[in-house]
């Protein structure tokens, strides 16, 4: 199979075909990676629904909550992703994914025994260190399992682990917190990841066991060569800017949307919880009710947006419209500030929860297109490194600084307004970063046809 370099300066070179697998086995492999990624986000995002109980028990400020949901995780997640990706270019990627899942799950359970901010911060650092190996190795595997024409859909299916994990984390975390407390939530959600990591280790296929793929792994470029390849790719650079801006907005929103509702819709949530309890006989407090509802909104609407982005992009690519990798995410990003403004300024609790579905769908549309574009912008032997470097900036800037900046802004605004209004306007002001993301996507659109090579 000949690699389409899409540039007159490139010489076509042979590239490995997708791994020879039965349809059933390929579906199993993709499903297993999806489940691992889902637990990745369960363990990563569960702290968001538990933020208020943690804040009360440990006496934390909003900036400390922001660091727990972002900076503590991002420090090692971002810095370890690149060396682990370099390992993944040459080694067994299945083993890396499995060991990562077991590691982050153990540290998630450790979060439940933390007695102060420092201990919880360090445990979250451990979660980030464990999760650093998951995405680059998984996306590299998926790219070997599939063709370019189906890559966006496959990576969109994998990325559904983000909303699905957020759903499970919020629902399960909220329900357990209501009945057993926030510490039990951390302990119980850590167990499935250990089991799934072992299952992945013994059942997932590694395409590099074929002779051609093995030779590709052995000839993986040196770090300087890989960085040079990425640094010369203008589209890759602008997509990295777009990803960092999107991550800044998304993680800021996810980290504090529960706090916004619990502070600004306390009475409305309480009334809705009582009404639901009377109808079903289930006894939910405001936190459990909010976790369930937000989890369903994030999960269902996020999954719909992720599927829509991957499906529509693959259809466009089949018609040779490669610019869809950038234009579809750009359109969604442009609408985000307006959707969030409407959501956070609405005083009616039911209306606010319903409106939240739109930004949750819009913010998920870009996952499939942008990850598929990154995998297609580099040679197969550089894919894990490209993903790791891509996520390095996205997580360091977006996950590390996004929630922290919202927390700092909220603490500052709280001096002149109540904590409810402070968190509301901190979130609204942060949403303007989506306009930067839309602009970066449109700049990337200009060169994407030329830069796609695999």
UniProtKB/TrEMBL annotation:
Its main location: membrane. It is found in: Membrane. It is a multi-pass membrane protein. SUPFAM superfamilies: MFS general substrate transporter. It comes from the Bacteria. The chain crosses the membrane at residues 25-43, 63-84, 154-176, 182-204, 236-256, 289-310, 322-344, 350-372, 384-402, 422-444. Keywords: Membrane, Transmembrane, Transmembrane helix, Transport. Residues 29-449 form the Major facilitator superfamily (MFS) profile domain. Pfam families: MFS_1. This is MFS family permease. It comes from Azospirillum picis.
């Amino acid at each position: 199979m000949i690699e389409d370099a899409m540039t007159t300066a490139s010489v076509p070179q042979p590239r490995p075909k997708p791994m020879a697998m039965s349809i059933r086995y390929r579906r199993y492999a993709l499903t297993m990676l999806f489940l691992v990624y889902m637990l990745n986000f369960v363990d990563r995002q569960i702290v968001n629904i538990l933020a208020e109980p943690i804040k009360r028990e440990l006496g934390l400020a909003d900036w400390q909550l922001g660091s727990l949901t972002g900076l503590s995780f991002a420090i090692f997640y971002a810095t370890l992703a690149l060396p682990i990706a370099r390992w993944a270019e040459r080694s067994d990627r299945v083993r890396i994914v499995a060991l990562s899942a077991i590691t982050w799950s153990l540290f998630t359970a450790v979060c439940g025994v933390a007695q102060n901010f420092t201990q919880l911060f360090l445990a979250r650092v451990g979660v980030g260190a464990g999760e650093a190996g998951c995405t680059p190795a998984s996306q590299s595997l998926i790219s070997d399992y599939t063709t370019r024409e189906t890559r966006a859909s496959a990576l969109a299916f994998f990325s559904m682990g983000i909303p699905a994990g957020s759903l499970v984390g919020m629902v399960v975390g909220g329900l357990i917190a209501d009945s057993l407390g926030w510490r039990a939530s951390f302990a119980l959600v850590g167990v499935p990841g250990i089991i799934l990591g072992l299952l992945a280790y013994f059942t997932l296929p590694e395409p590099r066991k074929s002779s051609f793929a093995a030779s590709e792994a052995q000839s993986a470029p040196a770090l300087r060569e890989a960085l040079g390849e990425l640094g010369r790719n203008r589209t890759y650079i602008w997509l990295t800017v777009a990803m960092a801006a999107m991550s800044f907005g998304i993680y800021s929103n996810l980290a504090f949307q529960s706090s916004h509702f619990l502070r600004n819709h306390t009475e409305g949530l309480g009334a809705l919880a009582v009404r639901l309890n009377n109808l079903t006989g289930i006894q939910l407090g405001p936190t459990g009710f909010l976790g369930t509802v937000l989890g369903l909104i994030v999960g269902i609407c996020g999954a719909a947006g992720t599927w829509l982005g991957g499906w529509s992009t693959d259809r466009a690519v089949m018609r040779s419209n490669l610019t869809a990798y950038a234009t579809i995410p750009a359109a969604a990003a442009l609408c985000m500030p307006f959707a969030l403004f409407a959501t956070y300024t609405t005083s009616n609790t039911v209306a606010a929860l319903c409106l939240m579905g739109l930004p949750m769908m819009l913010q998920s549309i870009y996952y499939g297109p942008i990850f598929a574009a990154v995998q297609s912008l580099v040679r197969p032997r550089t894919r894990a490194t490209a993903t790791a470097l891509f996520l390095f900036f996205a997580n360091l800037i977006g996950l590390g600084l996004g929630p922290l900046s919202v927390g700092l802004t909220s603490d500052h605004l709280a001096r002149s307004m109540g904590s409810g209004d402070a968190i509301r306007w901190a979130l609204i002001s942060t949403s303007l970063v989506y306009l930067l993301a839309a602009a970066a996507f449109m700049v990337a659109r200009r060169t994407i046809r030329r830069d796609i090579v695999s």
